[in-house]
Input
Amino acid sequence: MLSKDQIAQRIAQELQNNWYVNLGIGIPTLIANHVPTDVNVVFQSENGILGMGPFPFEGEEDADLINAGKQTITAMPGAVIFDSATSFAMIRGQHINLTVLGAMEVSDQGDIANWKIPGRMVKGMGGAMDLVASAENIIVAMMHSNKRGQSKLLRQCSLPLTGVKCVKKVVTNLAVLDITDKGFKLLERAPGVTVEEIEKATAGRLIVEGDIPEMEL
Output
């Protein structure tokens, strides 16, 4: 199985030159540490920075420079800091080429639930609904199962939805999957993980065609 950092490393392979990319809270924030050297991307954080860099080394943190998850970050040369109105104008205006989000559940139709668990207090929705409503290319970074061993890749989400039929691809600690009209299509499996293990861990419809290669990290 992949670690959270390895999930981010695999998603970094999806980045394309000159893209503007929004990184959500959690696993997605780790992607900034794994950008291929031959790819130039600009990371946007919804709290108001364009040109977000990797996490700072210990002792070099600036408490005033944070991402949407309130983690300290670095700024790349030429980075710009602005208010949230400008940030969401970028998002709502569809100026972001790729959005990477964490999730609690994803359905095999591309629905995502990532903002609320009923009965638990939440501070607010944040920018999640704006991101899923505006983005045309959404990748979800998540663990395949929850702490109880239950699948988080479902036929239908049981938690309150953030967006409907918006997710294009899912990368978990077990697999890389595309969202199709017929369900999750298995593209790659984590090193040492079998197709049978992925089938067992996936509650939604799963399409397996031909030999499924292992991820290359």
Summary: The mean pLDDT is 94. The chain is about 15% helix and 25% strand. Residues 4-12 form the longest helix (9 residues). Helices lie at 4-12, 84-92, 128-134, 195-201.
